[in-house]
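no rush on this but wanted to send it before i forget. what follows is a protein written twice so to speak, once as letters and once as structure tokens for the fold. mainly i need to know what kind of three dimensional shape the backbone takes. thanks a lot i owe you, the record is right below.
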Amino acid sequence: QVQLVESGGGLVQAGGSLRLSCAASGGTFSSYDMGWFRQAPGKERESVAAIRWSITYYADSVKGRFAISRDNAKNTVYLQMNSLKPEDTAVYYCAARPQIKIAGPYDYWGQGTQVTVSS
């Protein structure tokens, strides 16, 4: 069982930056694909970014502004968010999926961290 704990959310003005962290425990971190998702009020949860080994994926809405990275020595995945917009306001979740699954739903989820971008 993998436990995930996000941190780094907060209130920031439009154009600002935040870095989210997700600390993992209870599993072999390097053997998991990691993803960041977000859910805004009244909207469905959406994928923001993912990382498999060193291969990264980004939603079109965040390409060029967000960067996902991982530090396997620290069992941590990061989401650097730059040029933030009010529409980035959401609860951000990190998630883990065993690499052996290749694709499909993520198995483990954090509790989420709130990001609010003011205009």
